[in-house]
Amino acid sequence: MTVAFDYTRSTGPVIGRFLTGLRDATIVGGRLGDGRVAVPPPEFDPVTHQAVTEFVELPDTGTITSWTWVSEPVAGQPLGKPFAFALITIDGADTPWLQAVDVASPDDIETGMKVRARWAEERTGSVTDLVFVADDGNAPETATPAGGTEDVGLIVTPVSLDYRYAASPEESSFFRGLAEGRILGQRCPKCRKVYVPPRGACPTDGVPTSEEVELSDVGTVTTFCVVNVPFLGQRIKPPYVSAYVLLDGADIALQHLILDIPAEEVRMGMRVKAVWKPRDEWGTSIENISHFAPTGEPDADFDSYKHHL
Amino acid sequence: MRDVAVVGFAQRQMKDFDGSPSMAELLVPILAECYEQTGWAKKDIGFWCSGSSDYLAGRSFSFVSAIDAIGVLPPVNESHVEMDAAWALYEAWLKIQTGEVDTALVFGFGKASAGVLRRTLTLQLDPYTMTPLWPDTVSLAALQARLGLDAGLWDEAALAEVVNRSLTDAEKNEYAVRAGGSSVGELLARPMFADPLRKHDCAPVTDGAAAIVLAAGDRAREANQRPAWITGIAHSSDGLHLGTRDLTTSGSAQRAAAAAGGTDGVQVAELHAPFSHQELVLRSALGLGDDVALNPSGGALAANPMFSAGAIRIGEAAKRIWDGSADKVVGHATSGPALQQNLVCVMEGRN
């Protein structure tokens, strides 16, 4: 499973100045209270906590202060092959900067080595606008002109993480049951409540739920909402109803869709039945149930579900 | 100040937890063990505090699902920190100091194996100047290690000695996911992973959970025959930017140790050092001499479950007080890149 989100961040006067510099192929440092020049410039002096207001334009060359070899790069790192991360002290600066160095092997880098920036052709105002390479003393390549004139006030930093999920033993039996068209819950040995989907522990008593209970696919709508707002990835045209369905025999409601009825006619207490997808489309998923639809029975008494709201 | 002691401790550490990232099913037996040790039930716990992270679980409000393991009817007095449970312990200690409660149970849990841990942890860095490069935690630690090597503060043999001692001690720890000493020569013959670090210099990716019970005064004496009294506890943090602090020392660990009253007379130290050279940094920052037994549990190089490994150091140190093998111990926890945040907990036994 992949969880991804693009964070849009405002940069402010200090980081904005630094990132605008990178966009323009210039490294900008900030002067600290003790006179030292820091790259990147921190917004506040780490010792005096005074705002950093004085900027210094620096050359795009420097010296390796420390380095490591990334033998197995992870997704998103600046080079799609093994490379070095290094702390680089830019000429004229006093504090080192974490950056990537493009060299062929760990034998091609050492502490004290001179490096220079290799600027990306298209720069957006990001620390990924450059990587460092060995400074062989030849005249540096001239960077392409900046892509904009406005200061870099906003940056977008995409974050994407991959997860491999395992189901708990209780969740496993629930999902396996669905693959057979059965809805399985579990009963707490102490309070006798039936949870569906089953959980690792009864949230009331904190003890494992052990006894498996097969539930009916008929239940009662305890509460619902009409979805009117379109959103990314929406699969049904609004308005439609998402509801809590208390299956007969369960003590906790299951969230699902209510279809085959106009949204404005859905009500608390309405009796509904699962509409299963065709059997050849089943997997180990709650999506085996397409939605719930009215049974046509009389509505349930409020008293029958008032403790399950 | 009220006298507060560590009176219960339970843990589970494993390479790969075959279960959900909310880990409620792993926490149930851990909490049961704490009840058994103290003779208490849920109703005896005045305050609950957990440490975990949604970034590790890959789902929002994952700590709320974990609360199932407590059972919250009637409702419990509960809080959460997005940090190692050692910081949850700090919050619980403060809560007891306020006089509002006399007992607390803190727990931490994390299923690091669900994602790529060294990559996930880049999200704790400065999002403007660091995260876009996805600098993994192992690389950052390796940069720190080389600074010390180049400065002559340690050499590769010193790192291998830390590893050899830790993995030898880990043979006696049933929860170690990596154990087995060899020799400095054999360790140095292994290939580099993040030059100058080898894989054994880096803590193994570990799933796990742990819980610690705290109690004040007579409640502590009632729960444990020889409580580990907390005589000093403090935490401190260094700045966000790696370049503006000296990575070969740990100012924050030093400040935390000083604020906790120093480590004079400490016989056993459990240091949370996820990388071999960090034990050397911490040993000097905490002012621990050669006569102090370091990480008899094997430490983080043997098992390092995110969000509980720091609390486990406090629990392991407390156990040395309970069994009478030490009178004064220190447990330490770290968080953030390259030892950015540090917590020091000094505990003593009284006869």
Helices and strands, with pairings:
The complex is a heterodimer of chains A (309) and B (351).
Chain A lengths: L1 E9 L1 H12 L3 E5 L5 E2 L16 E4 L2 E10 L12 E8 L6 E5 L12 E6 L10 E5 L19 E9 L6 H11 L3 E5 L6 E2 L15 E5 L2 E10 L12 E8 L6 E5 L12 E6 L12 E6 L7 H4 L4
Antiparallel strand pairs in A: 1-10, 2-3, 2-4, 5-6, 5-8, 6-7, 8-9, 11-12, 11-13, 14-15, 14-17, 15-16, 17-18
Chain B lengths: L3 E11 L9 H15 L8 E5 L2 H4 L4 H5 L11 E4 L3 H13 L5 E9 L5 H4 L16 H14 L5 H14 L14 H5 L3 E3 L2 E2 L6 E12 H7 L4 E10 L13 H9 L8 E3 L5 H10 L7 E2 L9 E2 L3 H14 L5 E8 L5 E8 L3
Parallel strand pairs in B: 2-3, 2-4, 7-11, 9-10, 9-12
Antiparallel strand pairs in B: 1-7, 1-8, 4-7, 5-6, 8-13, 12-13
Counting copies of identical and different chains, the oligomeric state is heterodimer
User: What's the total number of strands of chain B?
Assistant: 13
Total count of strands of chain A: 18
CATH class of the largest domain in chain B: Alpha Beta
- The helix/strand class of chain A is mainly beta
Query: Remind me, CATH topology of the largest domain in chain B?
Result: Peroxisomal Thiolase, Chain A, domain 1
The CATH architecture of the largest domain in chain B comes to 3-Layer(aba) Sandwich
| Estimated helix fraction of chain B | 25-40%
- Helix count from the secondary structure assignment of chain B: 12
Tertiary shape of chain A: elongated
Number of helices of chain A: 3
Distance between the termini of chain B: 20 Å
Chain pair sharing the greatest interface: A-B, 65 and 64 residues
InterPro entries (chain B): Thiolase, Thiolase-like
Protein name (chain B): Lipid-transfer protein
GO molecular function (chain B): acyltransferase activity, transferring groups other than amino-acyl groups
Organism (chain B): Nocardioides luteus
